[in-house]
């Protein structure tokens, strides 16, 4: 068993962090997705009405933070090489609970072995 800590950015450096247990099997399933998120490159699109060009730099736009009205791709579109089971394992199992509107980026992911702890109080 391992411990995984993931930090997300909800909006303009409003961060949330979660630390959870993860099995080696789950970690191995998610590693390629983490690598793809790490290698994400911003891209440009047109708005729905073709009035404006937008640059999108959010590496994991989730919930209302995904601005499809500005041409932003959904996480399923950005990471189309991955099956939905892998994407939703990450979302439902390991990401911090997002606020009311979702979040736009995964800022960091750290993993390590679970260390035995002594409860003092």
Give the SSE map:
Elements: E1 2-9, E2 15-22, H1 24-38, E3 43-46, E4 53-56, H2 75-78, H3 84-93, E5 105-113
Antiparallel strand pairs: 1-2, 1-5, 3-4
Describe this structure in words.
It is a single chain. The protein has 121 residues and is an alpha+beta fold. The protein has one domain. Helices cover 24% and strands 27% of the residues. The chain is built from three helices and five strands; from the N terminus they run ββαββααβ. Strands 2-1-5 form a three-stranded antiparallel beta sheet. Helix 1 (24-38) crosses helix 3 (84-93). The chain is elongated, with a radius of gyration of 16 Å. The model has no long low-confidence stretch (mean pLDDT 92).
| Count of the separate structural domains | 1
Terminal CA distance: 25 Å
Mean pLDDT equals 92
Q: Strand percentage, roughly?
A: 25-35%
Largest beta sheet: strand ordering: 2-1-5
Please trace the helix and strand order, writing H or E for each element: EEHEEHHE
Count helical runs: 3
Radius of gyration: 16 Å
Instruction: List the uncertain runs.
Output: none
Number of strands: 5
Q: Specify the structural class.
A: alpha+beta
Shape: elongated
- What's the main sheet like? 3 strands, antiparallel
- As a percent range, the share of helical residues equals 10-25%
């Amino acid at each position: 068993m391992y411990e995984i800590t993931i930090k997300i950015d909800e909006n303009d450096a409003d961060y949330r962090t979660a630390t959870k247990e993860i099995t080696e099997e789950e970690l191995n399933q998610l590693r390629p997705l983490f690598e793809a998120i790490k290698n994400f490159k911003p891209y440009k699109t047109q708005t729905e009405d073709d009035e404006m060009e937008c640059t999108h730099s959010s590496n994991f736009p989730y919930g209302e933070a995904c601005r499809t009205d500005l041409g932003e791709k959904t996480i399923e579109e950005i990471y189309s090489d991955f099956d939905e089971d892998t994407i939703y394992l990450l979302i439902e199992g390991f990401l911090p609970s997002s606020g009311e509107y979702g979040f736009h980026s995964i800022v960091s992911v750290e993993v390590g072995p679970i260390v035995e702890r002594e409860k003092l109080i």
